[in-house]
Design a protein that fits this description.
Helices cover about 35% and strands about 20% of the residues. The chain is an alpha/beta fold. It has a single domain, classed as 3-Layer(aba) Sandwich (Rossmann fold), CATH 3.40.50.1240. It has a six-stranded mixed beta sheet with strand order 3-2-4-1-5-6, with helices on both faces. The radius of gyration is 16 Å and the shape is globular. The relative contact order is 0.24.
Amino acid sequence: MSATILLIRHAPHGHLGSILTGRMEDIALTAEGRQQAQRLGEALRHEPVSAVHCSPALRARQTAAALAQLVNLPVETNGALAEVDFGEWTGRRFTELACDPAWRMWNEQRGTALAPGGEGMLAVQERAWKHVTETARKCGNATIAMVSHCDVIRALIARALGLSLNNLLRFDIAPASVSRLIIGEWGERVISINERTA
């Protein structure tokens, strides 16, 4: 038996690319983001999705709701899929962070660097991987949609591929994209990365 995990990045919000929102409260999708979430749901509605899990962040819940409504399922929030806790960097502009040596170290050494007052990528990877693999084990041959965040999804794909977290920035995870994992007793396999459906 093997489970299919659809790793979905939330659709765009208004601060995307300008502010490190992290775990800031009430960051909602833009109008275009809501449209992308709807198109994403339409693209996936005919897949045999049996559960929809998501990060507690509003933008993730809104994205998940667009799919869940179309497949007539509830949205199950889970902290294991939460955005990285960026600590003191939360809410700062990327232009400001670019001048911070600690930020440069974070991006060069994701395997060991820590966000000041926040998490390291290894802890993020471990919590998310535990949720994904436990869900796969419980659900058998089911297809589970999981809506999360760029770096969380990168960390999961890196784990499945056996890549160092230091290489996390070598591939992209776009907003409203889908990446697919298959997980069974034999191990895991990455089927696709960064499918653009919207």
